[in-house]
């Protein structure tokens, strides 16, 4: 293999750091996503895809929305870059700043929880306009149970940002694992031992959020944290400058979520449940691939961006090389995942969810939603590293403005069909894919203006991945058609074995093609897999 030009390479130290961090995060994501699928399987088995599940989904959205709005967007865009800068210069200053952020968050979040509890009936009516009175009352009850989770989710997010800035990735990588495990345990135990109803999921969500905080505290044993209200701290202004565009963008995106759920509730009380089950499957490759790689490269990008701001041209080259390394790894893995899920949508949904209260029609509708979501999966996967490139440069306004444009894409795509016929669930799912695609393409164009993407093999990697995935997809399609002739797929074990065999054959075909195409990213992937196997 011919060595690339020096300006296009990532140093061995930085590449090793990315591999090491990605390995840790990927390990946590693998376990978390598997438990996430178990969680959704348990929900489907216990409660099906009924209106009660849709009511829980609405109640589940609120703490997630509030976390994203108040803390979630701040973690990657402001806290990690600012905490990383403090960690490089003065560890005591880092503890003081972290104490201040946690103290302010405690006061502000407590007030938010009280306000949401008081306004729960109106929020439920806004989010689920298509529900009848009985289902709205259930939604309000569940919302009051889940709202306190926003406090613990937010504290957990701040602790994650602090640990990432310190390059301590292990415990944060397993926060979602803890969250999902607790929900599963509480749901199964609550129904089987106490005969609880849908409220058991709200109890599990709240306790899962508490568990995330408890998991990360041992990673900060050396931290000197104390209550502080130093409102004149200079870093607050810096964080505020980085965060307000994110808050603006999140407000707009959360409004879009409210509109999406409200519209979905008018297409049938089961639509939200079907869409959420499909989203769970989509989130598996996104979390395993895009989120892991993006979080792994963010601290390195933040450090290089600091050198770029000081006029270091070599750091500018390394910045683009690190970013494109992450993008190439994402393309290598997400494209075959997209094709495989498209071909195997029906058997995968049936395997994961079709039992108990979840019937064949639910499988059909969930698989339909899944295929429409897949149109935007690859673009959603490359979008996150592109956004993080701007966060690392402490520019949060640009991604926020692109987010506003993305909401416009969504609204046009969602509402255009209503000019000719009634709104359908698939219209909303396809509109989401249009939004993700448009957002990623705009971000790709903007990042290219930061530094040229040419010469970093992005297009070549994408082309080779697509060609390899097409060959794999044809093989999977043939396998699905002929599998009943050579494999007994009756029962859970039979279906699981058939899908595992098809995935194994598909993966073998894809990576064989990738090796034939001599894709250099395979070697880095091998290092990640080796690290995962050694854990």
Structural overview:
The protein is mostly helical and 535 residues long. It contains 19 helices and no strands. The longest helix has 39 residues, at 51-89. It is globular and about 65 Å long. It starts with 11 loop residues before the first helix and ends with a helix. 52% of the residues are buried.
Task: Summarize the structure in short.
By secondary structure, the chain is mainly α. Helix content is 82%, strand content 0%.
Structural class: mainly alpha
- Strand % is under 5%
The value of Rg in angstroms is 23 Å
Task: State the helical fraction.
Answer: over 70%
Q: What is the molecular shape?
A: globular
State the order of secondary-structure elements, H for helix, E for strand.
Answer: HHHHHHHHHHHHHHHHHHH
Note the quaternary state here: single chain
How many strands?
0
Q: How much is the average pLDDT?
A: 84
Features:
535 residues, 82% helix, mainly alpha, globular, disordered N terminus, 19 helices
List the SSEs and their pairings.
Layout: H1 12-47, H2 51-89, H3 91-127, H4 133-146, H5 149-165, H6 170-173, H7 175-194, H8 199-216, H9 234-265, H10 271-309, H11 313-343, H12 345-353, H13 360-374, H14 377-392, H15 397-415, H16 425-450, H17 458-486, H18 491-516, H19 521-534
Helix pairs in contact: 1-7, 1-10, 1-19, 2-3, 2-4, 2-5, 2-9, 2-10, 2-14, 3-4, 3-5, 3-9, 4-8, 5-8, 7-8, 9-15, 10-11, 10-13, 10-14, 11-14, 11-17, 11-19, 12-13, 13-16, 14-16, 15-16, 17-18
């Amino acid at each position: 293999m011919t060595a690339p030009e020096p300006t296009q390479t990532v140093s061995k130290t930085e590449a090793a750091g990315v591999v090491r961090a990605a390995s840790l995060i990927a390990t946590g994501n693998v376990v978390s996503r598997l438990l996430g699928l178990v969680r959704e399987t348990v929900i489907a088995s216990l409660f099906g895809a009924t209106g009660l599940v849709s009511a829980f989904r609405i109640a589940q959205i609120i703490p997630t929305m509030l976390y994203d709005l108040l803390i979630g967007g701040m973690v990657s865009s402001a806290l990690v870059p600012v905490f990383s800068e403090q960690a490089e210069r003065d560890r005591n200053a880092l503890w003081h700043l972290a104490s201040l952020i946690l103290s302010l968050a405690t006061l502000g979040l407590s007030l938010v929880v009280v306000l949401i509890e008081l306004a729960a009936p109106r929020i439920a009516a806004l989010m689920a306009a298509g529900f009848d009175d009985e289902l709205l009352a259930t939604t309000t009850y569940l919302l009051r149970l889940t709202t306190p989770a926003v406090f613990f989710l937010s504290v957990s997010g701040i602790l994650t940002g602090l640990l990432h800035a310190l390059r301590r990735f292990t415990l944060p990588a397993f926060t979602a694992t803890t969250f999902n495990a607790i929900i599963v345990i509480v749901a199964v135990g609550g129904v089987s031992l106490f005969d609880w109803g849908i409220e058991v999921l709200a109890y599990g969500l709240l306790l899962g959020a508490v568990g995330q905080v408890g998991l990360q505290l041992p990673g900060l044993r050396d931290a000197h944290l104390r209550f502080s209200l130093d409102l004149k701290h200079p870093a607050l202004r810096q964080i505020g400058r980085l965060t307000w565009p994110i808050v603006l963008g999140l407000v707009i995106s959360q409004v879009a979520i409210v509109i999406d759920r409200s519209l979905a509730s008018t297409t049938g009380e089961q639509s939200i449940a079907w869409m959420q089950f499909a989203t769970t499957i989509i989130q598996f490759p996104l979390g395993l691939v895009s989120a892991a790689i993006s979080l792994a490269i963010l601290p390195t990008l933040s450090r290089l961006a600091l050198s770029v701001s000081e006029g270091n041209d070599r750091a500018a080259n390394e910045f683009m090389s690190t970013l494109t390394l992450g993008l190439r790894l994402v393309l290598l893995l997400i494209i075959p995942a997209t094709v495989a899920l498209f071909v195997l949508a029906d058997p995968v949904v049936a395997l994961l969810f079709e039992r108990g209260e979840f019937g064949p029609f639910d499988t059909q509708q969930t698989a339909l939603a899944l295929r429409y979501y897949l149109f935007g999966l690859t673009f959603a996967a490359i979008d996150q590293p592109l956004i993080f490139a701007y966060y690392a440069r402490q520019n949060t306004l640009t991604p926020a403005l692109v987010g506003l444009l993305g909401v416009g894409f969504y609204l046009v795509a969602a509402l255009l069909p209503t000019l000719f016929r009634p709104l359908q669930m698939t219209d909303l799912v396809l509109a989401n894919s249009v939004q993700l695609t448009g957002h990623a393409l705009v971000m790709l164009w903007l990042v290219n203006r930061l530094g040229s993407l040419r010469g970093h093999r992005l297009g070549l990697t994408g082309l080779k991945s697509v060609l390899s995935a097409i060959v794999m997809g044809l093989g999977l399609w043939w396998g699905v058609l002929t599998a009943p002739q050579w494999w007994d797929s009756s029962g859970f074990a039979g279906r699981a074995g058939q899908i595992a065999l098809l995935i194994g054959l598909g993966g073998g075909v894809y990576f064989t093609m990738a090796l034939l195409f001599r894709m250099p990213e395979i070697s880095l992937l091998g290092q990640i897999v080796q690290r995962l196997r050694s854990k």
